[in-house]
Write a structure and sequence with these properties.
This protein is α+β, with helices and mostly antiparallel strands. It has a single domain, classed as Cytochrome Bc1 Complex, Chain D, domain 2. The strands form five sheets. A three-stranded mixed β-sheet has the order 3-9-8. A two-stranded antiparallel ribbon has the order 1-2. A two-stranded antiparallel sheet has the order 4-7. α6 crosses α7. The protein is globular. The N terminus is likely disordered.
Length: about 350
């Protein structure tokens, strides 16, 4: 599952003074430095019987030399092609998690459904361009898969291929496969994966076609500006090796965490998400944990809800809270929630 629906996320918006709604896509949240001049439109490409038309070309690194790669702490060796194999991606640390069900480890090649583990990683923590699914309640994951399948959940960005790929994947899953994936990822504990650093500058970076920010070589920095820039702690470990033990750093404007905390606290967001933002059951509605999750993902979720791209079972709880949310608010809230301990 590419991304995790944040039901009832951030009730803080409900108490904010009326502000201009975000009228433009928050580039930082979707992994853009600038929006593509010729974006794709995956709203229709992903409507067929198979999921692979949504697999954006050029999105995975390659190595023409097929060099064997190793990773500290692992006894295994893989080539870049094996690391990124769509139906059998590398698992560097099989003892870090329970045995993966077949749908997570291999997907369904006959239907073009890539292994869940290639994007979400075997531990479910994922990359900034998708979502962390480990440690979420089983029934919540099943609910989101159902919303993807029905088309009620997608993305506000038609160029974001994986947002629509998840719809195609969900349509191609049997009930048993969906349950196996949900059982598995809910059983894997989520631990700290992103650290938030307030700064006026950020290391010079590029953006991949899939929306992954990557630090460039050298020590050059550029002004951060009014955005969050989330990138791997180590470019090689994440982009080439897909090391499931190497996380992310999110650079946020100075003062973001304090401002975000004030917004969340004043509006009593803990009523839905719990005082620690770790989720709870609320009148038969499963409110997911959001503490310590990707700042980029939280920003995307806020915008997707605001634009009506999320219309699933619990989306109504978000309609009013995000209606007048500004991008400044989204930046502060995303930084604060991501900074929390899971």
């Amino acid at each position: 599952m590419r991304r995790v629906l944040l039901v009832g996320i951030l009730c803080a918006a409900a108490s904010l003074v009326v502000r201009a709604q975000m009228t433009m896509i928050p580039l930082w949240a979707y992994g853009y430095i600038a929006y593509p001049a010729n974006p794709g439109d995956y709203t229709q490409k992903c409507q067929g019987e198979r999921a692979d038309p949504c697999d954006r070309p050029g999105g995975l690194p390659t190595d023409p030399n097929n060099t064997p790669r190793t990773l500290a702490g692992s006894e295994r060796t893989f080539s870049v092609a094996q690391i990124n194999a769509r139906y059998n991606p590398a698992d560097w640390f099989p003892n870090d998690h329970p045995p993966m069900p077949d749908i997570v480890a291999h997907g369904k090649e006959a239907n073009g459904v890539r292994a869940c583990g290639i994007c979400h990683l075997p531990n479910g923590k994922g990359l900034m361009q998708n979502g962390s699914v480990s440690g979420l309640p089983r029934d919540y994951i099943l609910q989101q898969l159902a919303d993807f399948k029905s088309g009620k959940r997608h993305t506000a960005d038609p160029n974001k291929a994986n947002g629509y790929e998840m719809q195609a994947i969900a349509r191609n899953l049997t009930d048993a496969e969906a349950q196996a994936a949900a059982d598995y990822f809910s059983s894997v504990k989520y631990t700290k994966w992103v650290r938030v650093v307030e700064s006026e500058t950020v290391p010079k970076f590029t953006a991949t076609v899939n929306g992954l920010f990557l630090k460039e070589e050298g020590s050059d920095t550029i002004p951060l500006g009014n955005r969050i820039v989330e990138m791997p702690e180590d470019t090689y470990q994440t982009n080439i090796l897909r090391n499931p033990r190497s996380g992310f750093v999110a650079y946020a404007p100075i003062g973001s965490i304090k401002k975000g905390e004030a917004l969340v606290t004043t509006a009593k967001c803990g009523t839905c998400h719990g005082a620690d933002m770790r989720g709870m059951m609320l009148k038969n509605v499963i409110v997911p944990t959001i503490a310590g999750r990707s700042a980029s993902y939280i920003g995307r979720a806020l915008y997707d809800f605001q634009q009506g791209a999320r219309a699933g079972t619990n989306a109504a709880f978000m309609k009013a809270p995000v209606a007048k949310l500004s991008e400044d608010d989204a930046i502060a809230i995303s930084a604060y929630v991501a900074s929390l301990e899971p």
